[in-house]
């Protein structure tokens, strides 16, 4: 009786959800919470459209676009980092993770500049409903960016330690980071673009 050898290319592919199931629960929970924030924002916007439009004119869309591009670049770096980690090019994956993290730090600095400019112009949390939402949504998002940077730090530690390098940790970090970027795109659209 002859044995049949099956090569790797002939084996059926098994569906793979990247990362850890617990991270996906956390991501879905955050998406639900932010979804509620977005719905409440739109209800208030519909109730007082002129107030929101007048206040929105005081935002600098160029800063919003810059922050969007910075976070999109960070997502690209993190996606490439996962690809490099899967190919076992850990040095490249680590460099790309650092670049993604640097973009996250740039986002925080740009947002701090924008906030300080708004406060200097007299637009604070208590100015009106629009600015209450502006500071709340961007503030909660900023917290998530900071948490994401901490998670990317854990990913960098994983990639830098030859005894660790657990792929599910790298994928979990990327999953969280992409969620943070997705949330910003919606926040950008609501606060800066939607009229």
From TrEMBL:
Presence of the UniProt keyword Membrane in the record: yes
GO molecular function terms attached to this record: cytochrome-c oxidase activity
InterPro entries: Cyt_c/ubiquinol_Oxase_su3, Cyt_c_oxidase-like_su3, Cyt_c_oxidase_su3-like_sf, Cyt_c_oxidase_su3_a-hlx
Heme-copper oxidase subunit III family profile domain location: 23-195
GO cellular component, one term: plasma membrane
Sorted UniProt keywords: Membrane, Transmembrane, Transmembrane helix
Reaction catalysis annotation: 4 Fe(II)-[cytochrome c] + O2 + 8 H(+)(in) = 4 Fe(III)-[cytochrome c] + 2 H2O + 4 H(+)(out)
Any one Gene Ontology BP term: aerobic electron transport chain
Transmembrane segments: 23-47, 59-79, 91-113, 133-155, 176-194
Topology in membrane: Multi-pass membrane protein
Localization in the cell: Cell membrane; Membrane
Similarity remark: Belongs to the cytochrome c oxidase subunit 3 family.
Protein known as: Probable cytochrome c oxidase subunit 3
Provenance organism: Mycobacterium fragae
């Amino acid at each position: 009786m002859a044995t049949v050898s099956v090569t790797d290319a002939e084996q059926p592919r098994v569906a793979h959800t990247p990362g850890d199931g617990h991270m996906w629960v956390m991501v879905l929970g955050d998406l639900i919470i932010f979804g509620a924030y977005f719905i409440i924002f739109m209800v208030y916007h519909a109730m007082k459209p002129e107030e929101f439009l007048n206040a929105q004119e005081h935002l600098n869309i160029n800063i919003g676009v810059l922050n969007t591009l910075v976070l999109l670049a960070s997502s690209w770096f993190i996606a490439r980092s996962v690809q490099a980690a899967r190919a076992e090019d850990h040095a490249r994956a680590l460099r790309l993770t650092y670049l993604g993290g640097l973009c996250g730090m740039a986002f925080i600095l740009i947002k701090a500049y924008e906030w300080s400019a708004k406060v200097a112009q007299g637009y604070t949390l208590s100015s009106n409903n629009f600015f209450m939402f502006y500071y709340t949504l961007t503030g909660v998002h900023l917290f998530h960016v900071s948490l994401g940077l901490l998670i990317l730090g854990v990913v960098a530690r994983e990639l830098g330690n030859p005894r660790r390098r657990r792929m599910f940790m790298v994928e979990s970090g990327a999953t969280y980071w992409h969620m943070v970027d997705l949330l910003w795109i919606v926040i950008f659209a609501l606060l800066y673009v939607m009229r």
